């Protein structure tokens, strides 16, 4: 298998493989919150298989829902036809989403959900006759996916540069992350300088901005950058005041990750467009959704000749198997009171993490629910990072593997996103492994 993988598979980010002792880790099975490799060794899945897996692997109720649906139909197109799980799921998603989001547009990954939101926002203003509204405000460092539209609204230069001529026009607002902020130390001291910067962009580009795109509460792939409370609410007020749509990307934060079903709920914010993916099927099958309001949906109604149609419809849109898995996922949230039971787990992580400050290399610890980032630096007093070539974050994650825990870093931010199904004891044990790995590698 390793030979076949090496010979034939093009891994994302050009063969970014993590070899340990000259071996690529090949996963053969999953069991609860553990992954099992081809030699039978079990590892904790400490990043929920890229932030997706909510209730553990081989969760009986999800497996069964997929099997039951297989006995009916695996796939049928949504172009001109409806299917039962997709319609049932849309109703459920509208019920749990922030108020005002009334329509569900399906796709198959976080990137496509964002792509759709961006295209909808753009076309909406064209249909409304406000044809100058073409630009997007996005946050520096943001990651919203890797299709052309979603790359456009990202803030990572490395992803942008080569595709620059193809992208939507954007202006960048500073990332609202106090630890890395150059505008001030805390919102109390700086008067929310990051929000003031957004208002300045809205004023400078008045009448030209279609939408602002934000991840709520935490910029995940940017390095688990937790926003100061009140940021999202303030940004929402500004977008309303300036007549700009707000796109909230809940791809990473949705489905319980931050302690509520959606992160928007912490701030009482209802956006104009909201994206969800990753945890939507509990991490079982590819599915995503872009939710929007009556106001936006209605603008697209009319005969094709009126050129109002939203031209976007992937082959696997609204796939019944994936929608059946998503319905089972939501039933588990309800039946097992997943959100209600998160409190002690989040607190256990917080308690354990407090001890990490003792480690000389730990410069910052950021936690929002069970989204956790531990930032390593060579000198935390002066905030001097490690030389990138040392790959400290990567080395820590390779070390945790030796101790039976799989995690992935974001640069020198060690990311911990365990399945929500992890018990308090399992969370503590995984954090003990991370502590030990950081201590040993950075010693
Ligand atoms: N938005 C956010 C906030 C994400 O974290 C990600 C993936 N990490 C995406 C979009 C893209 O999702 P996908 O990888 O499923 O395309």
Keywords:
four-stranded mixed β-sheet, Aspartate Aminotransferase, domain 2, binds 4'-deoxy-4'-aminopyridoxal-5'-phosphate, 2 domains, 443 residues, seven-stranded mixed β-sheet, Aspartate Aminotransferase, domain 1
How would you describe the overall organization of this protein?
The protein is α/β, with parallel strands linked by helices. It folds into two domains: 2-54 and 339-441, Alpha-Beta Complex (Aspartate Aminotransferase, domain 1); 66-335, Type I PLP-dependent aspartate aminotransferase-like (Major domain) (Aspartate Aminotransferase, domain 2, 3-Layer(aba) Sandwich). The chain has helices at 2-8, 12-15, 48-51, 60-70, 84-96, 110-127, 148-152, 157-160, 187-190, 193-204, 231-241, 264-267, 294-299, 320-335, 342-354, 392-402, 424-441; strands at residues 19-20, 23-24, 27-31, 34-37, 42-45, 103-107, 135-139, 170-173, 209-214, 218-219, 225-226, 245-249, 273-276, 288-292, 362-368, 371-376, 405-406, 409-410, 413-416. The strands form five sheets. It has a seven-stranded mixed beta sheet, with helices on both faces. Strands 3-4-5-17 form a four-stranded mixed beta sheet. The chain binds 4'-deoxy-4'-aminopyridoxal-5'-phosphate. 4'-deoxy-4'-aminopyridoxal-5'-phosphate (PMP) binds at residues 109-111, 114, 143-145, 215, 220-221, 249, 251-252, 277.
């Amino acid at each position: 298998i390793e030979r076949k993988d090496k010979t034939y598979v093009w891994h994302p980010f050009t063969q970014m493989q993590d070899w340990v002792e000259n071996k690529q880790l090949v996963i053969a099975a999953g069991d609860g919150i553990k992954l099992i490799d081809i030699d039978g060794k079990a590892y904790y899945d400490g990043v929920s298989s890229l932030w997706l897996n909510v209730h553990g692997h081989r969760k009986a109720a999800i497996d069964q829902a997929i099997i039951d649906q297989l006995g009916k139909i695996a796939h049928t197109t949504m172009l001109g036809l409806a299917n039962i799980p997709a319609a049932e799921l849309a109703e459920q998603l509208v019920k749990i989403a922030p108020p005002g989001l009334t329509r569900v547009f399906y796709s198959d990954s976080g990137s496509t959900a964002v792509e759709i939101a961006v295209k909808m926002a753009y076309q909406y203003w064209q249909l409304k006759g406000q044809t100058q509204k073409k630009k997007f405000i996005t946050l520096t460092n943001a990651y919203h996916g890797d299709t052309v539209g979603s790359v456009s609204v990202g803030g990572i230069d490395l992803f942008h540069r080569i595709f620059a001529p193809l992208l939507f026009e954007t202006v960048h607002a500073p990332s609202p992350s106090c630890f890395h902020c150059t505008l001030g130390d805390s919102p109390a001291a700086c008067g929310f300088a990051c929000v003031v910067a957004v208002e300045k962009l809205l004023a400078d580009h008045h009448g030209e901005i279609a939408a602002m795109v934000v991840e709520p509460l935490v910029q995940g792939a940017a390095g688990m950058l937790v926003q100061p409370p009140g940021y999202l609410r303030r940004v929402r007020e500004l977008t309303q005041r300036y007549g700009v749509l707000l796109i909230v990307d809940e791809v990473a934060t949705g489905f319980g990750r931050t302690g509520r079903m959606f992160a928007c709920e912490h701030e009482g914010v209802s956006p104009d467009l909201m994206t969800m993916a990753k945890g939507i099927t509990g991490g079982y099958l590819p599915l995503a959704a872009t939710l929007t309001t009556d106001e936006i949906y209605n603008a697209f109604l009319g005969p094709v000749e009126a050129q109002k149609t939203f031209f976007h419809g992937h082959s696997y849109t609204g796939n019944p198997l994936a929608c059946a898995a998503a319905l089972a996922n939501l039933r588990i949230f309800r039946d097992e009171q997943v959100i209600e039971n998160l409190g002690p787990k989040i607190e256990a992580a917080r308690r354990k993490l407090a001890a990490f400050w003792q480690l000389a290399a730990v410069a910052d610890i950021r936690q929002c629910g069970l989204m956790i980032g531990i930032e390593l630096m060579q000198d935390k007093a002066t905030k001097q990072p490690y030389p990138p070539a040392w790959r400290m974050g990567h080395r820590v994650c390779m070390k945790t593997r030796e101790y039976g825990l799989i995690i992935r870093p974001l640069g020198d931010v060690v990311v911990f996103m365990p399945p929500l199904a992890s018990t308090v004891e399992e969370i503590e044990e995984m954090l003990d492994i991370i502590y030990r790995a950081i201590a040993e590698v950075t010693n």
